[in-house]
Amino acid sequence: MRITVNGESIGLEDRYTVWDLIERYHLADRPCAVEINRQLVPKAHHREHRLTEGDEVEIVTLVGGG
Questions:
Q1: CATH architecture of 2-61
Q2: In terms of pTM, does the model score above 0.90?
Q3: How do the domains of the chain map onto residue ranges?
Q4: Selected residue with higher pLDDT from 6 and 64
């Protein structure tokens, strides 16, 4: 299937979850927020929320600096 992540089209296997995507981008140990098709997916649902063909995903992380 094809989805869009932060403006980039990518191909994934079927049955991919939000958690799988977070791990793919090496963000599992960092605070992040995930929005799919302009709807926030609560962190408690990341492991069970399956992605579907054509989803538009935005992943936002915190960046520290000074």
A1: Roll (3.10)
A2: no
A3: 2-61
A4: 6
